[in-house]
Amino acid sequence: MNEARADRLGFVRVLLALSLLVVPTLVPAPAAAVDLNAMWPDLGLPGFKITPFISERIEYESNIFQAHSGAQDDGISKTIPGFVLELPIGRHKLDLGFRAEILRYFNLTGQDTEHYFVLGNLLLDFPGGLRLNFKEDFARTSDPPGTELTGRLGSSTNVFTPSLEYRFAQRYAIGFEYVFTHVKFDSDTGIVQNLDRDEHTFGITGFYRIQPKTDLLLNLGYGFKDFDGDTSRDVKRYFVTTGVRGEISSRISSTFRVGYEVRDPNRGDVGSYSGYIIGGDFVWKPTERTRIALITERSVQESIFQSNFAYIGNQATLSAEHYLTPKLLVSARLFGGTSDYFAKAGKTDGTFTWRSDFVGGVGVGIEYTIQRWLAVSADYTHTRRDSNFDNFDFKDDIVGAKVTLSF
């Protein structure tokens, strides 16, 4: 065993020992943050805070490439620096977050990489009912997107969303939204380059306030997708959705929508779809210490297969968090989804049929805040995919432990 690997395994033992030996107390643990206006009052920006943090995570994964057979396991160290910034300016507000992940594999060193994530939200709230919102969401990662692709797969995804909402006559509001999505896969990932694309979506939404913090909504949308490597995949989208936004009760909130989409390819009928879509969440807080969330989605996803440009993905995640004490948090997550393809495909035995997949799993975790600036956590996740195309089946287990410093 070389010295570098010995050092890593030694750090694993330290982390696991630390996560097992900590003892919870009943002392509240406020979030660490640097109040910049308190440090420099001349800024004149009350509430201006920045929270830098760094985490060290060690995990073991049983099937790094999520392969059907010949699974390769490995340990991974992840160094995770980042910060969260909060800047209120009167009625307006800017939130910005950045996180990097430096991945180093114990044995499969050719998979070493870095991930980057940026989240930004600028809210401009003017007197008279006008609100402007600008959201930015960037991810550079080797985790495969969606349920179809597996293994290590480098990609960059950028989503920029400007929106406008104007409230009038107390109960009514109208909103306009544009969503630009850019998806780019690494140049050495073969056929997935066909999925490099720009997506544009335009929508107009009417809101009706049924109670002080609850709106019913109706949305009409149009969009199109331009693919870089295969223009035969270009498609137009038309959809209508209705749903609810806000607090249904004092302990239940939701962003749930349901609707109908027509997907019209520019060429031919491959990848066309007409049917219902859903998306959004329900969050229930039965007590101050407990949070339960249900996230749902039914949407058309892009496929790498030439005979199936797209498939219907149905996904649901049920998660729960509970503070056993003010410092000790336990969590659990149950997730599942199906992928149903539009056209028949050939199996390894020479027969043709419609492919259908089920992806599901379970996860549990525990987190303990030792001090306001120091927390430790451990978690376990099991994932599996069962397909009527047996060569796409896989099982994967991840066990991890993490130490986080925040300032």
- Give the low-pLDDT segments: 1-30
Rounded Rg: 23 Å
Helix/strand-derived category reads mainly beta
Determine the strand fraction and express it as a percent band: over 45%
* Major pleated sheet: 20 strands, antiparallel
- The DSSP helix count reads 2
Write the H/E string, N to C: HEHEEEEEEEEEEEEEEEEEEE
Distance between the termini: 36 Å
**Number of beta-strand segments:** 20
Question: Would you tell me the overall average pLDDT?
Answer: 88
Number of domain units: 1
Report the CATH topology name: Porin
In the CATH classification, which architecture applies? Answer: Beta Barrel
What characteristic shape results from the CA principal axes? Answer: globular
Q: In CATH's first tier, which class applies?
A: Mainly Beta
The percent range for helix content is under 10%
Explain the layout of strands and helices:
Elements: H1 3-21, E1 34-35, H2 36-39, E2 49-61, E3 74-89, E4 92-105, E5 113-126, E6 130-141, E7 155-168, E8 172-185, E9 197-211, E10 214-227, E11 235-247, E12 252-254, E13 257-265, E14 273-287, E15 290-302, E16 310-325, E17 328-346, E18 352-371, E19 374-387, E20 394-406
Antiparallel strand pairs: 1-2, 2-3, 2-20, 3-4, 4-5, 5-6, 6-7, 7-8, 8-9, 9-10, 10-11, 11-12, 11-13, 12-14, 13-14, 14-15, 15-16, 16-17, 17-18, 18-19, 19-20
